[in-house]
Write a structure and sequence with these properties.
Pfam families: CN_hydrolase. The protein is α/β, with parallel strands linked by helices. 27% of the residues lie in helices and 27% in strands. β3 and β4 form a beta hairpin. The longest helix has 19 residues.
């Protein structure tokens, strides 16, 4: 697919998914129609867009293969609205009944799945407010870094906790030639307040890519709350799109200008100035 030359409109969605697949699909359908009406060629949804579990094990029970009825609904939605969708963090059935894959799915405007990325870095963390998360109990980690061409340029795929591992985004930029990084997320309120925006802007600056970060927001249930603050950031690190309300359900729209990516990269040619470094080799003192 040829690279876009003129600015192309994109949208990022913010929502509060719950443990009701049909209700979440109704919300997503409304946001897709809104994005299509705004002229967006791509709409990015957050992690766990189709389902957020109330109880441990619920996500594994609702997990489906990519050709199952849940994903088929979203593929039909993309086709009917003539828009590409980034479905960031789908509960894909794993290799055994006890596990799923946290899969980022790219669907084109004909409803065809163009690419998938399985989340590599799993959220096994003791959050400072006392809540313990252990995503690896029910999720199989992915192994492959993935980029895919689209109408808005080459997309580098990731999911949520991947954001804290900059070497992944370096590979997406310098090895896989990404120009737009997608970071669908469900950041916790505590970690989001501390680190969300600064990490996203850092990833944009150090890779000289646009970053589109669709976020879950608000209280999903009595146990779980997400930070929100859906953002679109340009390759200079400037926020060019943000929902006015950090917790509202809705979309933010911005234009992706690949000529600006080229300009930033030409003026600061870090791709030519990078030096090979062996991070694992200890220096002698």
């Amino acid at each position: 697919m040829s690279m876009a030359s003129d600015p192309v409109r994109v949208a990022a969605a913010q929502m509060t998914s719950i443990s009701d697949v049909a209700s979440n699909f109704a919300t997503c359908s409304r946001l897709v129609k809104e994005a299509a009406s705004a002229g967006a060629k791509l709409l990015c949804f957050p992690e766990a867009f189709s389902f957020v579990a109330t109880n441990d094990g619920d996500s594994v029970r609702v997990a489906e293969p990519l050709d199952g009825p849940i994903m088929n609904q979203y593929c039909s939605l993309a086709r009917e609205s003539n828009i590409w969708l980034s479905l960031g963090g789908f509960q894909e059935k794993g290799s055994d009944p006890q596990h799923l894959c946290n899969t980022h799915v790219i669907v084109d405007d004909t409803g065809k799945i163009r690419s998938t990325y399985k989340k590599i870095h799993l959220f096994d963390v003791d959050v400072p407010n006392g809540r313990v998360y252990k995503e690896s109990r029910f999720t199989e980690p992915g192994k492959d870094i993935v980029a895919v061409d689209s109408p808005i340029g080459r997309l580098g795929l990731s999911v949520c906790y991947d954001l804290r591992f900059p070497e992944m985004y370096q590979l997406l930029r310098f090895k896989h030639e990404a120009r737009v990084l997608l970071v669908p997320s469900a950041f916790t309120k505590v970690t989001g307040e501390a680190h969300w925006e600064i990490l996203l802007r850092a990833r944009a600056i150090e890779t000289q890519c646009y970053v589109i970060a669709a976020a879950q927001a608000g209280k999903h249930n009595d146990k779980r709350e997400s930070y929100g603050n859906t953002l679109i950031i340009d390759p200079w690190g400037t926020v060019v799109g943000r929902l006015p309300d950090r917790l509202s359900t809705g979309i933010v729209v911005a234009d992706i200008d690949l000529s600006y990516v080229n300009s930033v990269r030409e003026k600061m040619p870090i791709d030519q100035q990078r030096k090979p470094i062996d991070f694992w080799k200890s220096a002698s003192l």
